[in-house]
Request: fold
Amino acid sequence: MSAEQTQALIRAYYDAFNREDIPAVLDLLTEDVVHDINQGGQEIGRPQFETFLRHMEGFYREESKDLVIMTTPDGTRAAAEFVVHGAYLKTEQGLPPATGQTYALPVGAFFVIRGGKIARVTNYYNLPLWTKQINAAP
Reply:
């Protein structure tokens, strides 16, 4: 896969994410996708990724903006930097109470590409910054 094809794949992933089109997101992943969750565990498999996405949609409404995608020349790895704009809809265990607070948070994501699909997704963001934004919201 070329660097350009990988960029298109990652862009399609975020476009589907922004549309909240879970089946389209899942179609871009390998069956054995590895998902490294920010400040959390690691899950393996498309069904686990779907469970994660469905869980998140109950608590958050998010859109990725200002997306920048970087790839290796051979297209096997990619990184994305963006700002996630969101609303905290329902209180998640261990986090502050949700009242519909909004936030804008810089995020970094890293990908491994195999066979034209995403084989690993690793997300990083600053949870204390998110918490500060949530707690400061009126």
Summary: Residues 3-136 form a domain with the Nuclear Transport Factor 2; Chain: A, fold (CATH 3.10.450.50). The two ends are 47 Å apart (CA to CA). The chain has one domain: 3-136. Residues 95 and 131 are 8 Å apart (CA to CA).
